[in-house]
Write a structure and sequence with these properties.
Length: 421
Amino acid sequence: MTYKIAIIGSGPSAFYAAQALFKSDHKIVVDMFEKLPTPFGLLRGGVAPDHQQMKTVSKAYEKIASDENFRFFGNVEIGKDITLPDLKKYYNSVILAIGAETDRKMNIPGENLDGSQTATEFVAWYNGQPKYQDYTFNLSGENAIVIGQGNVAVDVTRILAKPIEELEKTDITDNAIQKLNHSKIKNIYMIGRRGPVQAAFTELELKELGNIKGVNLIIHDDLDLSNNDKEEIKASTKARKNIAQLTEFKSKPLVKENQKNIHIMFYSSPVEILGNSKIEKIKFEKNRLDGDAGKQKARPSGEFFELDCDILLRSIGYHGVPFKGLPFDDRNGIIPNNKGQVINIDKSPVKDIFVTGWIKRGPSGVIGTNRSDSIETVATCLDSIVNSKIELDKDILDVLNESKIQYLTYKDKKKVNPEKN
Ligand code: NAP
């Protein structure tokens, strides 16, 4: 018996799900649906253009896509072009690998002032995502502030700081090169609400920030560790490596001739974005940490300061969005599930519907994390597949053609974006 499975989304978790399905003992055909014209999700639209090495994983995805039982339908939005219940009629199971499509909100006054944007918009813009190509970013002032200290914050900080000759060697868009070439930004502040031990970035990414030609890296805080911090670094290799790297950077003398400065500041939360029609300053409150080791939270201290700001990039994490007709855990931005099986509020399973990747576990981990995540989901899916039924014995191609949906196949992606294939 051949089982038909639809995967919605085409990022890393989607491809790892397809791979796990093909490796199973069952005969399986996979149709992958993507609302954009081209596949690879955040691998294409999220990974920094100067991190080409990371994108080589797409070669493995190409191999999966070459399986004779694999079809790709780009430009097809499930939920809009075809509803989920309609799609389900043609498949034994549906796996949603739709990622976390929006950003967390800071919920402070002035968040929507002109000049306050999300880091993910900036990333989507310089990576050439079609929807973002008309976005504008004010690079005409001297001060950029990035809120958050995850690897996305590090990526946008680095792109703002890097010399244009370095960026030109990457696959960043020509449009972005043109605008960044005229950038007047001199100071880029990357600001975290907690301390250096709790910073979300990883050592390799941090290291790059300290090694950009012509750029000073200034660590504004002391790196004194509390007893709780010391306990935390014992338990976390990442924190230990970050502290060692920050300590090394802090001891480096500044170079007067350098054109740009990256400022890393800890223990500071934005409380208000100030300006009239556009952003001018950000008001911060200093924090102290409170709570047991491993669970330390930022608490306001009553001490405030302000920084001039021409462009703000909010980089405080992604957040999943609800999918019509399915339950949603708004707090965590995920579709509730048990090992990938979608479940209702009363924990009963939503038959034959599964999730993987960020919509399953939240926006965390590196590309490879999705592999084990999808293997788990596929195992759950295959456990129940023998009891699943297809309602209509018709191929989705007929449905797409009858509905005149202008889908793109895997081969078409080369025509859409030849230089990126
Ligand atoms: P992230 O790693 O979750 O970092 C979010 C940052 O925002 C943290 O510093 C967090 O601080 C801060 N934050 C959250 N809410 C805040 C608030 N209300 N006010 C101030 N700060 C706030 O998210 P991300 O940077 O978007 O990255 C998402 C995932 O993609 C991560 O797993 C990341 O490693 C991965 N990624 C990896 C790479 C790479 O490997 N090179 C590149 C890009 C992304 P708290 O810790 O205090 O919450």
